[in-house]
Structure formats: C-alpha cells, structure tokens
Specification:
By secondary structure, the chain is α/β, with parallel strands linked by helices. It has a domain of about 150 residues: Immunoglobulin-like, CATH 2.60.40. The strands form two sheets. A six-stranded mixed beta sheet has the order 1-6-5-8-9-3, with helices on one face. A hairpin with a 6-residue loop joins strand 5 and strand 6. The longest helix is centred in the last third of the chain and has 14 residues. The two termini are about 30 Å apart. Pfam families: DUF928. Keywords: Signal.
Length: about 240
C-alpha cells in the first residue's frame, strides 16, 4: 500500500523548504500502512546502526494500534529517535473524513531546520499551525529522511489521535486541580493519553511527575531494551 495521500485544502498549512514540495509523496488516496507506531525492524539510516540495535530507529510515543484521545486542539506529539546522527525529518498530519473515512493531508513540516536528535522529541503545535477540530480523528506521521532520492528506504511511523470535548465535570475538576500532578491523574483516569504524556514530558522537575513519565513510557515500550532507552532519553522540545 502506498504511503502518500492527496493534499487536502481544508485547514491546509504546509511549511516546506522551497523546491522540496511533494518530493517524497505519491498522488494517491491510500492511507499509509499501519506501522503500530514503529519504523520497520531496527532499520536506521546506516547499516551499522541497524546491526547494533534491536530497538527501531523511530518509535512514536503512542499506544500501539489504538486511536488515543486528547482534549487539546493543539496537542503535543512525541517520538523517540534511536540514532545519534542528525537527519532531516518530515511530519505530516492527516484528517479522516467522518463519513467516508477517507483521509486528507492537513499539515506538513518539511523545513530545513526540522532535524532529528537522539532521544525523545516533542512537537507542540503553535498558532501558526492548523487547529484540530473537536470530534475529528487524525493520523500523524514522522519520517526520517535518509535519502531524498530513495524515499522507500526512509524509516517512518504513524499513529492515530482523536480530539474529544471534555465533559463539564472534567472541566470543573481540571479547573480545581491544585497542580500538574493532579491534572495528569485526571488525564490518565479519562484515557487522555496525549494530554497526560505532554504534561509529564513538559515538566521534569517534580519527582512524582517523573514517576508518571516512567509509567507512561513503559506502557509504550516493547521489551526491556526499548524501556531502558526511553527512560534514559534526553527530551528535545520543538515548536512549529
């Protein structure tokens, strides 16, 4: 199945490097294959990195094969990069049509300063990016660009996200929460994965939040090797 989708017009905002628009894309309406949030095998951008690690080169920090929820219309996305070499990255966000389940590209980041760093990377969507719509479902994808001329060899992964409206009761409880720790507990109680993860990755000074971060990272890790690398990762924060 091809990974490309036709570029949609609604909510469209594309941040690209001039001359590279569509370089790695096909004119297709097919969704990317479901990767379970992991790049294929342990393949990276060099033979040596693939030989030396059983951990995938790229892991999206989202529960595998489930559409996790958020109450934020500008959520934070997070992923793990294994290899130390800094590589160009590409980020894409697709929106599912609520009737047909077809998908269209609504945002894309291809700028020359968007590069990988080893460890956990977080991407926060600012006012310059499209605001997600409550009640809509999306698919997000990260790609490491090993070779722009051979995109089929680039490690990539995708995951799904659904934006939901908070209930009045949850709004009230969040407003009355004394601190971020209380809010994380509420997010976890309501299965709001992206909100909980964003909170624990944003603030690392509180020991109790560190415990929450460890718990959430273990939830997406597959095996001890992944868990160890996630837990020891430096966090790199990006905003677009």
């Amino acid at each position: 199945m091809k990974r490309g989708l036709a570029i949609g017009t609604a909510l469209s905002l594309i941040l690209i490097t001039p001359g590279h628009a569509g370089a790695n894309r096909n004119n297709s309406d097919d969704l990317p294959p479901n990767t379970g949030g992991r790049s294929g095998g342990s393949r990276g951008c060099s033979y040596q990195s693939a030989v030396n690690s059983s951990v995938p080169a790229l892991v999206l920090l989202a529960p595998a094969r489930s559409r996790s929820q958020t109450i934020s219309t500008r959520p934070t996305f997070a992923w793990f990069v294994r290899d130390r070499e800094s590589l160009p990255m590409e980020f894409r966000l697709y929106e599912y049509d609520p009737v047909s389940s077809d998908a269209k590209l609504v945002a894309e980041i291809l700028d020359e300063n968007f590069k990988s760093a080893p460890g956990i990377m977080t991407l926060s969507l600012s006012e310059t990016m499209p605001q997600l719509a409550v009640g809509r479902k999306y698919l997000w994808q990260v790609e490491l660009v090993c070779d722009r001329h051979r995109p089929s060899g680039n490690p990539f992964a995708d995951a799904e996200i659904e934006v939901v409206a908070p209930s009045p009761a949850l709004d009230d409880r969040l407003e009355r929460a004394k601190n971020e720790l209380d809010r994380v507990a509420l997010y976890e109680e309501k299965d709001l994965w992206y909100d909980a993860l964003a909170a624990v990755l944003r603030d690392s000074s509180d020991s109790q939040l560190e415990n929450w971060r460890s718990t959430l990272l273990d939830r997406v890790a597959q095996g001890e090797a992944e868990s160890e690398q996630f837990q020891q990762s430096h966090i790199h924060r990006i905003q677009r």
